[in-house]
Amino acid sequence: MSFLDIKDLSVSSGGKPILKGINLQIEKGEVCVIMGPNGSGKSTLANALMGHPAYQITGGSIFFDGQDIGLLPPEKRAALGIFLSFQQPREITGVDYYPFLFEAHKSLSQEKKEEAMDVFAFKQSLEERLKKLQVSSNWGQRHLNVGFSGGEKKKSEMLQLAMFSPRLAIFDEIDSGLDIDALEMVGHELGEFISSQTSALVVTHYPKILKYITVTKVLVFSAGQIISTGGPELAQRLEQEGFNDLIGKNS
Amino acid sequence: MPQEAIDKSQRNSHDSLWDDYDSSSYMSKTRKGLDEDLIRFISQEKKEPDWMLSLRLESFKIYQSLALPDWGPKLDKLDLKNITYYARATDQPAQNWDDVPIDIKNTFNKLGIPQAEQEVLAGVGAQYESTVIYHSLREEYKEQGVIFEDLDVALREHEDLVRRYFMTGIKPGLHKFSALHGAVWSGGTFLYIPKGVRVDLPLQAYFRMNAKGMGQFEHTLIIVEDNAQAHYIEGCSAPRYGADSLHAGAVEIFVAPGARFRYSSVESWSKDAYNLNTKRAIVEENAHMEWVGGNFGSHVTMLYPCSVLKGRGASADHLGVAFAGQGQIQDTGAKVIHLAPETSSNIIMKSISKDSGQSIYRGLVDIEPDAAGAVANIKCDALILDEESISDTIPLIKVKNQSAIIAHEATAGKLNDDDIFYLRSRGLSEERAAALIVNGFIEPIVKELPLEYAVEMNRMIELEMEGSVG
Amino acid sequence: MAIRKLKDNESLIHISLADESFLFDEASSQATQIRVEAGVCLNYVFFFNSSSCQEVNYQREIFIGAGARVKTFLVWLGRANGHLKFISQLSTKSSIEHRSLYFLLDQQNLKIIEEHNFIGPESKGRFYSNGLLAGQSQVNCNCEINILPKAQDSDSRIDLKLHLLSPQAKGTILPALKIAANRVRAGHGATTASFGPEDLFYLRSRGLSEDQAKSLLVQSAARLFANQIPDRELGKKVLDAIIERL
Q: Given CB 3.0 to 4.6 Å as the disulfide criterion, which of B188, B317, B401, C165 pairs with B218?
């Protein structure tokens, strides 16, 4: 079985079917890119994999590292090593950033039955990460994502990616609202993240990000189904030709 | 006048009382209900000056003539005839720790309150052992001329000062419960900060707890002289256990020109209590008043701290959190009356209701004709955690001056699903995520509290949130 | 769009798809109930501008059926003291956009009570109230949103503005929210500010007198209000009536 094994997955929201029989396999070390026009179901897949309560699985299955995760709540999926980088990271007022990170770290460690870092070690690790991400502002004085610019919010997600060390990272609209520098930063972080033990699922609307990441396979979504699969060359074709041709052929 | 002489004259005026009743047997009949005799008895017991007795009797007359409020939560279950309005400290039955209900004990434990404190909070135990810190603080205060005393003691030792201010901020005729208070008030705190004195450490009534327990008709009288500064903390956040079902206390604060004063209280009442306290500050020219508070528990709370901005440039901030759980009605708010020009006020209220609790914000901003250039900002947010709970926002705004600027904003809603999902995707359980968001919701107010109160408030929220989700 | 005028003493009106969807009410009836059937769209204008000084009392109730969409306007001018009660009831998936404007002069006083009851789920309401008080006039404006337990996923907001245009004018406003459902979006805002001292100074430094500045304010509020009325002619009539009072 593959590291992430999705078989005939159908997902609805509020009774409305969105994903219709998705088949997708990702092995360790792979970066899988999902592209497609708006409303094709890409974000739905990303959120459904993380267990967003608004989405219901109406058919098929999701196996992660050999385990059926279809019925697991989000925090348990996080504990298994799945991370979702949100398209619009939530601004949670009144919640101090660093204490939140530490609490999440402790919670995840407990679930994984690992020993959590003590607060000093955590703070040190955190500071190293912040430096690498070139975060100049003092996030310690701020609340979770509150008042963060688009670029800062992305860095915030990357910081969490680095601190929580998941095994599967899902990026929902990885590049929305980012400039070249930020795209490069994200690409770099993703590159650092991928190893023989980790994988990534990258949902994107624009092919620009592909300049900065190494892609294993590309899937094209349309109207809740996968209509095309290929390697990096498929992405290049799409950059030049757009989606319409491809979708036209399949409708 | 020498002590003896005073006693004799008072004795003469109460001769009949002494002849007809033996004082111990008088009190040992569990004395319920209220009449003039009891009031005279109270005054006599305390050896009060005549003017205080007159004030009590006058208040009693007003109490009898006023009706219960015709708005707000229903108070018809409150049996005014069946309440003990006065009990001597020595007559109060010492409570047995074993008799304290198990859920109260559990809450104390969860909040990490040491055994000795728990006992005092539960009305058990004779006296709270004051610590060395307390003693040295007392000395420091004394040197600066700060008076921080039982009100009964202050009435004897600083009679003129007390007389000048007592029940002039909260007049007996204000409403039925202020009249009741005027008649039967007993015990309380007197705090006097002389001109120009800055007291840096928060003053806590907590230090002075004794067997009298949480008086139901306690009076707090605070006088802050010109350009003085202090912070006073009343209450504590652990639930109070007590047989008293009615609390009609009063807090009067007089902030003289240029002075700054903050009154913080985090109150948690037992589930059958009626919390009908009255709190009011009179703020003079360029003086600043701050109310920071949290209200938890009780069966019914009606509490609207009021700032009267009397002098030019006077200002007030009201920050509050109210939490209404099962069977609870928190009818709270803020009242600011702008009487003078260039006055300003800022109200930030957060309320949370769950398990069919009812949380009501009732506010008043009153801009009187002389309040030119007055500025008032009100922000009320309500979090309704489940389908059965209720939240009402009733902000009355009266404007009688055209140059006043008032801005009021209120929102209501539930916890945002996407916020919860975000936190859960980071490994937090649903309950933990909800508690974190609720604590974040009230953070602007909690951060103004001294650390140990903030921590306790957060823990109270977490306790309340347990089992509230899913 | 054809405009139907309310007849004298017409106390009950049914609006169904077949009827005209524009109702003009010149305050000829003391109490009127309007029942808007499911799925219907209605525009309604209540216009009080009587020159009589006789104290008046009006009540209007509008029941909005499932999925119906309603746009309502209340205008209060005239000379008399008055009492106006406006009640709306919103069923499932219905919506209302409600605007009221009152411009009081001399010693006029007005009591307005608006009660907007959300009884069905996914109902939506936006309420805008604009008060202009000159002379020694007074207003008491209660605007309440009442969300009943079944009205989950409803979305409501009140915005109240009160402008005191003279030193003796006074107002009391109460934007209340009573909420018994939890999956709701509800909010309100209220402001009372004509010009802060700095704004007024700025305008005056451009050559305007205080009176001219206030007149600008009234005109701006009137235009904003009248432009929303879906019938241009009627909108102009309302605008002219308001400006005339300056």
A: B188
